[in-house]
Amino acid sequence: MKSKYFAILIVILNLLVFACNQKKENAQNTIAQQSEKTTTVKILEVKERKIAETLQVQGNIQTKESVLVSARLDGILEKLYVDEGAKVIKNKTKLFKIETENLENNHKIQKHNLEMAKYKLAEAQANYERIKSENEKITIDYERSKRLLEKNVITKDMFEQIETRYKQSLAALKQSNVLIKLSEEAINQAAAALEISAKKLTDAEVYAPIDGYISKKFQKEGETLRFGMPIFQIDDIYNLEVCAFLPAEHYSKIIIGKTKIDVNINDLTLSKVITYKSPTINPQLRVFEIRAAIANENQKIAIGSLAQVIVYLSEEREAITAPKSAILNEHSKKIVFTADNNIAKKIEVQTGLEINGNVEIISGLKKSDKIIIEGQSQLKENDKIKIIE
């Protein structure tokens, strides 16, 4: 009986030994299979490229110069020479005319008044010369009568009569001189009135103050106008500017005449330099305005267009970059995998600016390194890899 139990025990022990050996063999096979595992990846050769700190915002295209052309005097709008959409040339294109009949009549009257004032001056000057001549004769008589009185040749009464005539002559001479000055002032006033009437005639017919196009018409022919009422709006479509607003924290980075921007308008891309920076920051929105001049000689850009604006907050420089997707986080560190003779190598990197899906690599990589950009999340150090195009 004992031998029977002993035999059973031997069998059980043999089974246990066999199971252990089988498990060990399976584990060794699994390790061997894992060591032979190959991961399919894509790689990218590291190169240097130009990078800069940038900010993308939305901007608006506007004209640098827009002018409201208004009535310069009261009157009836007699004639409009242009309409909306018309091209105008500075100081050459006639815009409109205010009824001038009354202005022309007034101008004629002021001309006549000036001529009359000149005649009155000539009369006053002639009268002055006559009185002056008489005064010279009376003065001689007066001086002689004083000597004759001293010698008792004439009576005191006769002397007093001559003296009175002398004083009256002096007064008349003084008065005639005043009349000359009044006549001269009348000429100045008449000349000023004539100049004003001439200016009103000029102001009645208005020419374009800038080159551009008529964007708005506010009045119709026959309307009664008052001084300052707008007639046309002219926009200079040849000299435009892009306007955008940036967050306040970037204010010190913007330098007029130096900071570069790229302006994308539909399919058109322009590289410009900032020409204006607001001297203040909006205290509610915490933004400030920038502008850049845009030449529009071919008229491909419409006023009011939206634009995508990329602002270069720092100077461009050469730097090694890697796609953001290629960089992995591992225990608070950033790593990439490189391909080295079909073996994956893990490298710790330090990163900088992130621009358009690429990240600046400050340290860890060098030019011509081949980094893994697809399949890297499945890799471990020294894994075998298969590179596909």
Strand and helix map with partners:
Blueprint: H1 2-35, E1 38-45, E2 48-51, E3 54-63, E4 66-70, E5 75-80, E6 87-88, E7 94-98, H2 101-150, H3 156-204, E8 205-207, E9 212-217, E10 224-225, E11 230-235, E12 239-247, E13 260-265, E14 268-273, E15 276-277, E16 287-295, E17 306-312, E18 317-323, E19 328-330, E20 333-340, E21 343-348, E22 350-355, E23 358-363, E24 370-374, E25 384-387
Parallel strand pairs: 1-25
Antiparallel strand pairs: 1-24, 2-18, 3-12, 3-17, 4-11, 5-7, 5-10, 6-9, 7-8, 9-11, 12-16, 13-14, 13-17, 15-16, 18-23, 19-20, 20-21, 22-23
Helix pairs in contact: 2-3
Unreliable stretches, pLDDT < 50, 5 or more residues? 30-35
Helix content: 25-40%
Give the termini distance in whole angstroms.
74 Å
Order of helices and strands: HEEEEEEEHHEEEEEEEEEEEEEEEEEE
> What is the arithmetic mean of pLDDT?
88
**What class do helices, strands and sheet pairing give?**
alpha+beta
Strand-residue fraction? 35-45%
Q: What's the shape?
A: elongated
Strands side by side in the biggest sheet: 14-13-17-3-12-16-15
